Every structure is written in C-alpha cells, then in structure tokens.
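Hi support team,

I've been running sequence recovery on a batch of backbones for a student project. Most finish fine, but this one hangs at about 90% for roughly twenty minutes before it completes. I'm not sure whether the input is malformed or the queue is just slow. I've pasted the structure tokens below so you can try to reproduce it. Let me know if you need the job ID as well.

Thanks,
M.K.
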C-alpha cells in the first residue's frame, strides 16, 4: 500500500503506532487532519498496519478532495508548511523511530489528503451552481436564436408560394347514410283518383356534399358600377316575410287583414287538390302531361320547371313535407328535385335546367331553385323538438311503439333536411355562375339579361337569403344595376332588354325586384300608380301575378282597388265541376306554353298573396298580430 492510498488520518495513526510514541501521533494528527469534522475512533496500538484499508472499505469516509502535487511539492494551501510541521513533530516525538518509518513519513508529506471545510464546500457549490446556470442560459439563448432563424426561413419559403390567403369556409355538412328504406315516412295524403303514389322514392345513394365556399369559377361576373346602385350591404335585408304561412291560424289572420276571404281560400285548396292528381309516379309534374279534363301545354321536357311551379303553389299556402294536408305530395316533389340536383351536380353547382333546348331552360332552373329555397326556409329547424304537431299545439299521448316510430321518422327527415339544403345551395351557386356580365339573366348561362328571367332569379336569391343560404353580395349588386339599365321614367317602368315605356308585364317584374333590392328607390311610387292605372288583366296571369305582389307590398287605396277586382275575377274563372274541377283554363301567350297547369299555378299563387309574403312597406308602420 502506498501513502496515496491511505487517508491522512489513517496514515498518521499507522506511523505513530509503529513507533510507539503517543506524542508523535497527536502532533501529526493536529497538523494533518481538518479542524471541522470529528475524527473517527482511533485504532488500538496492537492493530496491524493494514487494518485501516479494510475499515475504510467497509465504512467509506466522507468525500475528499485530493490536492495534486506539482513539481514534487504539495498543491494545496499551506502544503509546504504542513509537511514541515509534520516532519518536525514526528522527529521530536519519536526519536527512536527507525529510519525506515521516518522515510515513510517524509514520503507522505509530499502529498497530503484532507477534507474540505463546510465553508469551502459551500463556496465551491455556489461556484459550480452559478457556472452550470450560466452555461444553460447561454446554450439556451444560442439554441433559441438558431431555432428562430430556421422557423423564419421555413415560413418565408412557405408564404412565398402563397399568392393570397385561403377563404374561410364553413364546415361541410355531413350527410348521414342509412340503409333503412324511406317508406311510409309521412301520413298518407288523399290519393289521386286515377294514379296512386304507393311508395316514396329512395334518397339519392350519393348524397350531395355542400361546400359553401365560392370557387373562382363560381364568382359573379364583374358589373359596371353606376351612381344609381346603393350600398351592397343594404341591397337585401333579411325579411321574415314567410312567417304568414307558418300555421292555419296565421294564414287566416293574414287573409282577413289584407283582403282575402273564405272564397279565395276555398279556391286555393281546390286548385291544390287538382294539382295533386297531376303528379307523376316519380314525384314530378309536366306541363305537357295532364289528366283528362285539362289542356296540356306545348312545353316538353320541362319537368324541373313544372315541378318547381307546382311546389311553389303548395308552399305558398304553408303546405310542406312537415305540415299541412299534402305532406306526402310535397315530399315526393322535393325529393324529385333533390335527386335531379344530385344527378346533375358538378363540383360546387347543380344544374336544374330543363332537358329541352328552348328558352325555358333558365326559367326552369330559376323556378326549381326558388322552390327548393322556399321549402328549406319554411322548414329548417322544425325538427329540433321532434315532428311538428298538426293539431296547432295540442299534444297527443303516444305509446312507446308510436314514440319509437316517431324517432325513426325524425331521423330520416333530418337527413332529408340536410339534402334539401345541399340541393338548394348548389342550385343557387349555378344561378350565380350563370349571371351575365350586365348583371341580369336570360335563356342561357352568361347571356345578356332580360327582365323576365332576371325576375325569377332575384326571387330565388331573395328566398335563399331568407333561408340563410349563401348569396354573394356582388350578384345582388349586379341585378340592381341591370334593372337600372332597362328602366325608364326614372325607374317607374321597365323594358325587356332595354328601356321601353308602356310594358306592364316587365314593369311589374322590375318593380317587384326593386322592392326587394332597394325599396327606397324614388321611382317606385310612380310605378305603383302606373300599375294601378293598368288594372288586373283577364288573360295575362303572368302580369297579374307580379303586379298583385307589388301592390300588396305597397298597400293603401291602390291595393284595395286592385284586390277587389282581381280576386273576384279569379274566383269566378275557376272550374267548378267535372274532371277539371279546381283548375283554371289556359289563357294568353304563356297559357299556351304551360297549358292549364301553368295557368292554375299562377292563379293559386296570386290568391295566396295575402299570406305568402308579409307586406314590406306596411310592416314598417305596423306589427301583425298572428
């Protein structure tokens, strides 16, 4: 064992024991060991010199800090003095120590091991702690700046590839699939006399996905600004103007308040019963396909247009697939249009134009879109608390089996509501994409507009807006600018494709559009006087349909005069007997195209005017208590 392997205290013990002198031992201990900690129990004089190593292994001493010697001298503080004192004390206290032992003592003095004092330990702990913290801070700062530079470079590389930020889009509506057939979903209507719809159509196997974002190809075409165009944010306001159809009670109250009577209501529902008999087995209607006792129209392959017109007649009286006397009939008709929209959808649009190549194509799309939008606006959210109650608030007690069946129907009808919204929005998107550069619509997509087709398009966009669907402001702005381009007499009258006076039909359409788009336009009051002077027509129901709505919104003496004459001649002209009971005979130019079916639809919707739309101008002055 070398002196470097033995702690200072144990080496001194060994030297003193070998010499047998206690004075040398005490002197060596006093100089070699630290003053702070208490020394371990000394070994007996007769203990062998090798014992300290074994004891040290069994009971490890406190951690020591060894001071290395440099150049043959001790490296610790006071190393030279400590060795000299140890040598002197050993020599004075052990004269009889052999030269061999004295040599060992001298050798040990060259490298002394000792324990740190508590003060030195604390000082070194603080120094090491501060050093570690400083290293961590410095390394952390260097890492942060390096990482920041890498992130900035990555972001710069990404953003340099993006021309403009993406538009925020609503989450697509998820259409829940079900394998359960949709049969006997609603209560059975009174079946047609000659043909019964025995089962409902299956929902489209490929549900329509609604993506409300407006892709670049869907954007409305730019239109030239004119001083007459108002602020786009005020072009359309949400009108709760469908509220009058909400229930039989509200319809009756509105009818009595605004000029209808029991005869007008009877005429409406007799007409709806006749239309029900004309429905085909797939849920559609066709102008050129009518039952005995009615005159067919010349328009062929106009199924979407005819189906849309008939559905508007039912919806105008509050008859939906959730409420009324014709739930099954309305459901089948809506489902037919939904399936058509799904089959003819492409990307983010659905084309509901008729199959023929006539000028009726865009008419058909506008009318079918209007029907889908009105149906959705009238029924959205009604299934929140289950099936609507036809008994005007009277709840009937149901068995557990009946409640289970009701839950099944509610689940299927909620899925149908999702598909209805999808078809309506996709059809609106196609309508927006078809708008001409001048702001109007005509026979084909992107054609320069005419007042007639533009009227149906504006009505569809208005109903879409009321229903909460997406309607681009730029499309509405364009429609208003188109009206300015074809107006005459300061906006009191409107031409077809250019300004022209004394055209009652197009003037009625233009004024109704103006009321929805910019009801404060200064030309409207004079336009009201013009329509009132013309009066209801005996054979032009297209004019009567639009003019009746304009005067109803306006109210006053002009409306009362118009309504008295108009309702009387309509009730009188309806067929009262035979297989055609409830229909109106075709008259005028449009009557030949659509036959008795189109004429009947126009007459029914005109007689529904009392509750079909709440009067805009009178609502500003009064509240209707329904």
């Amino acid at each position: 064992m070398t002196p470097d392997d033995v702690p200072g205290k144990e080496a001194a013990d060994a030297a003193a024991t070998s010499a047998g002198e206690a004075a040398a031992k005490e002197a060596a201990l006093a100089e070699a060991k630290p003053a702070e900690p208490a020394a371990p129990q000394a070994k007996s004089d007769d203990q062998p010199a090798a014992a300290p190593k074994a004891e040290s292994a069994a009971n490890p001493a406190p951690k020591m800090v060894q001071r290395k010697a440099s150049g043959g001298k001790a490296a610790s503080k006071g190393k030279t003095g400590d060795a000299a004192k140890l040598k002197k004390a050993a020599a004075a206290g052990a004269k009889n120590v052999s030269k061999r032992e004295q040599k060992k003592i001298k050798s040990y003095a060259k490298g002394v091991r000792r324990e740190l004092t508590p003060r030195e330990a604390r000082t070194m702990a603080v120094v090491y702690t501060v050093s570690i913290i400083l290293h961590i801070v410095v390394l952390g700062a260097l890492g942060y700046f390096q990482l920041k530079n890498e992130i900035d470079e990555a972001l710069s590389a990404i953003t340099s590839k993006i021309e403009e930020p993406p538009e925020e889009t609503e989450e697509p509506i998820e259409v829940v699939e079900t394998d359960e057939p949709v049969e006997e979903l609603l209560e059975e209507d009174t079946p047609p006399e000659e043909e019964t719809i025995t089962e409902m159509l299956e929902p489209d196997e490929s549900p329509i996905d609604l993506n409300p974002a407006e892709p670049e190809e869907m954007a409305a075409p730019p239109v030239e600004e004119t001083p007459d165009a108002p602020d786009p944010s005020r072009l359309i306001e949400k009108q709760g103007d469908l509220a009058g159809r909400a229930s039989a009670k509200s319809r009756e109250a509105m009818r009595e308040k605004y000029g209808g009577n029991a005869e007008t209501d009877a005429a409406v529902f007799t007409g709806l019963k006749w239309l029900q008999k004309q429905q085909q087995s797939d849920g559609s209607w066709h102008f050129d396909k009518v039952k005995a006792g009615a005159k067919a129209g010349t328009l062929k392959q106009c199924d979407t247009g005819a189906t849309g017109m008939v559905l508007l007649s039912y919806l105008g009286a509050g008859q939906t697939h959730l409420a009324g006397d014709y739930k099954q009939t309305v459901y089948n008709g809506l489902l037919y249009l939904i399936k058509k929209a799904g089959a003819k959808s492409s990307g983010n649009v659905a084309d509901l134009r008729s199959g023929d190549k006539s000028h009726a194509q865009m008419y058909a799309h506008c009318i079918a879109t209007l029907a889908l939008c009105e149906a959705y606006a009238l029924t959205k959210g009604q299934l929140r608390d289950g099936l609507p109650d036809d008994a005007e608030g009277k709840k009937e007690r149901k068995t557990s089996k009946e409640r289970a069946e009701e839950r099944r129907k509610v689940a299927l009808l909620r899925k149908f509501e999702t598909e209805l919204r999808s078809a309506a929005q996709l059809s609106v998107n196609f309508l927006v994409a078809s708008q001409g550069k001048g702001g109007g619509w005509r026979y084909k997509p992107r054609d320069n507009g005419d007042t007639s087709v533009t009227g149906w398009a504006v009505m569809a966009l208005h109903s879409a807006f009321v229903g909460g669907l997406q309607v681009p402001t730029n499309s509405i702005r364009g429609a208003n600018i188109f009206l300015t381009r074809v107006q005459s007499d300061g906006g009191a009258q409107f031409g077809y494709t250019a300004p022209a006076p004394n055209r009652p039909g197009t003037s009625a359409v233009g004024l109704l559009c103006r009321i929805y788009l910019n009801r404060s336009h200064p030309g409207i009051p004079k336009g009201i006087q013009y329509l009132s002077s013309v009066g209801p027509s005996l054979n032009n129901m297209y004019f009567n349909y639009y003019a009746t709505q304009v005067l109803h919104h306006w109210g006053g003496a002009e409306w009362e005069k118009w309504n008295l004459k108009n309702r009387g001649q309509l009730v009188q002209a309806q067929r009262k007997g035979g297989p055609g009971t409830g229909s109106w005979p075709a008259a005028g130019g449009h009557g030949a195209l659509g036959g008795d079916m189109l004429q009947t639809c126009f007459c029914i919707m005109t007689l529904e005017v009392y509750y079909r739309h709440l009067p805009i101008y009178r609502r500003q002055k009064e509240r209707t208590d329904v």
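--
Follow-up from support: It reproduced on our side and the slowdown came from queue contention, not your input. Confidence is low (pLDDT under 50) at residues 1-79, 154-239, 622-626. No action needed from you.
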